[in-house]
Amino acid sequence: MGHIVWDWNGTLFDDRDAILDATNEVxxxxxxxPMELEHYRSVYRRPIWDSYERILxxxxxxxxxxxxxAAFHDSYHRLMERCRLAAGARQVIxxxxxxxxxxxxxxxxxxxxxSVAVRxxxxxxxxxxxxxxxxxxxxxxxxEFMVRHLAALGADAADVVMIGDSVDDAIAARHVGxxxxxxxxxxQSRADLDRLGVPVIERLSDAAVHI
Length: 211
Known about the structure:
Blueprint: E1 3-6, E2 13-14, H1 16-28, H2 37-43, H3 48-56, H4 64-79, E3 84-85, H5 89-98, E4 102-110, H6 111-120, E5 130-133, H7 142-153, E6 160-164, H8 167-176, E7 179-183, H9 190-194, E8 200-201, H10 207-210
Parallel strand pairs: 1-4, 1-6, 4-5, 6-7, 7-8
Antiparallel strand pairs: 2-3
Helix pairs in contact: 1-4, 7-8
């Protein structure tokens, strides 16, 4: 059996609306009108500061990324309280475990918050490892975090499937030689996900078909 690496935000955790609303709160202070989901999807890129530059139409100034990031997380951590697991998440995790697969979480969200959320949503025993951004880490490309995640697990990339909601997840999987499945529940459009040439699913329950 293989190992499944799950992304968290926008994949197992249905926080798309909270992210959009928090982003709109931040850019309201710049005098910008609120974005609808499809507009945000059209400017969304990773790393996330690329998205912010596209929203503003200019390069971020020195120190501006840090200020925006802090303001975003202040809003997001308030708004995320209304969020829950994505539809079918618990069922597919249990089904994959029943089939003998091991599972873990790799997220670019803050590790302390991620760990608490995983436990509070009843998934504390479902994963061999949960990794988010530690305090000393500023983010960036997910690929290098994937290298460290698999090394800590002692997992062979040839036996690994990454399931996430963004192009970044597929690139991280490709970087280590793992497979990827992308889910449309996040902030990237179906068209963007389809360009990677990996399976794209509309429902988490469909992941098992491609594993």
